[in-house]
């Protein structure tokens, strides 16, 4: 149903955004990361979900969507990321061995300290085969923006098969992603911005 208030997931439901979908897909295939910006309730989440589903269908590239609303720690982010990987049944795309176990049910996290969580996120993302990860409401990670930016900088420099899409309010972390300061690991590598 076109006019319900829930985020859309197919291109047939997403009215008037075909150009934005195509632009996002071309940016992903060009190995650029993307930030989708715009005011609340304009369709950022719908665009992210449709792009993920279209790239899965057209290019056979795995994709996961992660809503960060309410996520208050990097440990929670790691747990959600592993849960989504297992839900999508794509654990075979990851070659992890230090901070994780691969079981018949998917990937399991080995326990550890906060430092280990950062290392686990880096290991998980750097061990991935081709994947698109969409982080919605990324401003929620502002509490850990330095560590998250360090993780992103590591992944950007190490694994070109990981494609990121971000969306969120233009404060804190989103601002740091769009205009990384000179001491940021993403300095000189800002994502492509798509404003709705």
TrEMBL record:
PANTHER family: ATPASE DOMAIN-CONTAINING PROTEIN, DNA-BINDING PROTEIN-RELATED
Source species: Saccharolobus solfataricus (strain ATCC 35092 / DSM 1617 / JCM 11322 / P2) (Sulfolobus solfataricus)
Residues in ATPase domain copies: 16-189
Entries under Gene3D superfamilies matching the protein: P-loop containing nucleotide triphosphate hydrolases
Molecular function terms, GO-annotated: ATP binding
InterPro entries: ATPase_dom, P-loop_NTPase
Pfam hit, one: ATPase_2
Name recorded for this polypeptide: ATPase domain-containing protein
Domain of life of the organism encoding this protein: Archaea
């Amino acid at each position: 149903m076109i006019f319900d208030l829930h985020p859309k997931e197919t291109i047939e439901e997403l009215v008037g955004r075909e150009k934005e979908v195509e632009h996002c897909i071309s940016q992903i295939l060009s190995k650029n990361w993307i930030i989708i910006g715009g005011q609340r309730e304009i369709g950022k989440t719908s665009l992210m979900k449709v792009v993920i589903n279209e790239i899965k269908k057209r290019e056979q590239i795995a994709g996961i969507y992660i809503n960060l609303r309410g996520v208050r720690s990097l440990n929670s982010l790691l747990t959600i990321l592993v849960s989504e990987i297992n839900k999508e049944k794509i654990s075979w795309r990851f070659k992890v061995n230090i901070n994780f176990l691969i079981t018949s049910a998917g990937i399991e996290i080995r326990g550890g300290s906060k430092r280990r969580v950062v290392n686990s996120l880096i290991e998980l993302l750097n061990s991935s085969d081709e994947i698109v990860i969409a982080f919605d409401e990324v401003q929620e990670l502002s509490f850990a923006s330095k560590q998250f930016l360090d993780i992103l900088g590591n992944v950007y420099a190490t694994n070109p098969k990981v494609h990121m899409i971000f969306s969120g309010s233009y404060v804190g972390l989103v601002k740091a992603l769009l205009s990384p300061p000179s001491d940021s690991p993403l300095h000189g590598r800002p994502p492509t911005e798509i404003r709705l």
